[in-house]
Specification:
The chain has 339 residues and is of the alpha/beta class. Helices cover 33% and strands 24% of the residues. Strand 4, helix 4 and strand 5 form a beta-alpha-beta unit. The termini are far apart. The protein binds oxa(dethia)-CoA.
């Protein structure tokens, strides 16, 4: 099939410099390396030091994606984040300015851990519609700045980081073309993942309870929804594209918990080697999760040109979604290790 489409041409990611191992957490909280590793698959995560925020990690990832694409110019920047530098304005214009991109269209998309898939769909649609000819799509979050320091469950899971891709207008028949999306939400389950305070609801009531500024998650329910919704979305998109599930070479799903990835892979009938996982090294990096897994996968060779890839995400909102493409050749810089 031919026709105008957004084509992936660049990829990059960045991790902030403070590495926190499971043993580091166990020195401060009632947890253990054994619990975190067996219940989540996560061994370490990276967090921002004081003074570094979401715009900073986004700029680093954006610069790497632009270099990977061999360009210094795009005419659209979409930033997926739910930890913006400020409640207002959006962080994307700041990032565009610091990347030297000039007076381009720039805005944030907030869909928590599904943010990258939503942002990719937004930028891809704007390119397909002719509103833009190229775009930088960044997923960046610094959840360490909104976690309750005493909450061992969320502290064990989340890490900070940013990942980005560059898209340009091309043809649907080209390798790297974004071939389809499946997006969905269920606001009746909003309370499962929420930061209760700090928004207009609480400000309009003039009261806030202590601790309301922290992120909260009902882990067990979220786990069940994540498996069902990511499987459902991937299956629906594959069917729309006439891709038999056995023809899918790699699944790059939101990196929240290795048990979730294993369950989604099993549900879709995909063997373990087709399910890309890097959460052991980076934790759950929210909107950065999918582009960071792509970056690691391309760098270590588990993702290669020609692979049929399904991306799928799930997060607060609740929101979930999937995207599909055949991977082009990409040259990526490895993620920093900060050993
Ligand atoms: O990114 C957006 C979407 N987020 C997700 O997809 C996350 C989905 N949820 C999960 O990954 C898992 O539910 C968690 C990793 C958050 C929790 O794992 P779980 O196996 O569901 O544990 P649980 O919440 O059922 O808790 C089991 C036990 C509890 O103790 P009791 O009540 O059995 O005595 C918890 O208090 O484990 C305890 N626990 C911990 N123990 C040691 C919870 N966190 C920890 C911890 N260290 N860090």
């Amino acid at each position: 099939m031919t026709g105008r489409a957004a084509v992936l041409t660049g990829l990059g990611g960045w991790l902030p410099p403070v590495r926190v191992t499971n043993d580091d957490l166990a020195r401060r909280l009632d947890t253990s390396d054994e619990w975190i590793t067996t219940r989540t698959g996560i061994r370490q995560r990276f967090v921002v030091p004081p003074g570094l925020s979401t715009s900073g990690v986004a700029v680093e990832a954006g610069a790497r994606a632009l270099a990977s694409a061999g360009t210094e110019r795009v005419d659209l920047l979409v930033l997926a984040t739910s930890t913006p530098d400020h409640p207002c304005p959006a962080t994307a214009p700041e990032v565009a300015g610091r990347l030297g991109l000039g007076e381009i269209a720039a805005f944030d998309v907030a869909a928590v851990c599904t943010g990258f898939v939503y942002a990719l769909a937004t930028a891809s649609s704007m390119i397909t519609a002719g509103v833009a000819d190229s775009a930088l799509v960044i997923g960046a979050d610094t959840f360490s700045t909104i976690l309750d320091p005493g909450d061992r469950t969320t502290r064990a899971i989340f890490g900070d980081g940013a990942g980005a891709v560059v898209l340009r207008a091309g043809d649907r028949g080209e390798r790297g073309a974004l071939l389809g999306f499946d997006l969905a939400s269920d606001g009746s389950q909003a309370e499962l993942i929420t930061v209760p305070g700090g928004g207009s609801e609480h400000r309009s009531q003039g009261l806030a309870d202590p601790g309301d500024e922290f992120f909260t998650m009902q882990g067990r329910s979220v786990f069940r929804h994540a498996v069902t919704r990511m499987s459902e979305s991937s299956r629906r998109l594959a069917k729309d594209l006439d891709w038999p599930l056995e023809s899918v070479d790699r699944l790059v799903a939101h990196q929240a918990n290795i048990r979730i990835l294993t369950a989604v892979g099993a549900d879709l009938g995909l063997p373990e080697e087709k399910v890309v996982a890097n959460l052991d090294r980076v934790g759950n990096t929210v909107a950065a999760s999918i582009p960071l897994a792509l970056t690691d996968g391309v760098h270590d060779g588990s993702l290669a040109a020609g692979h049929r890839v399904l991306l799928c995400g799930f997060g607060g909102g609740l929101t979930w979604g999937a995207a599909a493409l055949e991977l082009p050749h990409l040259s990526v810089e490895p993620l920093p290790t900060h050993a």
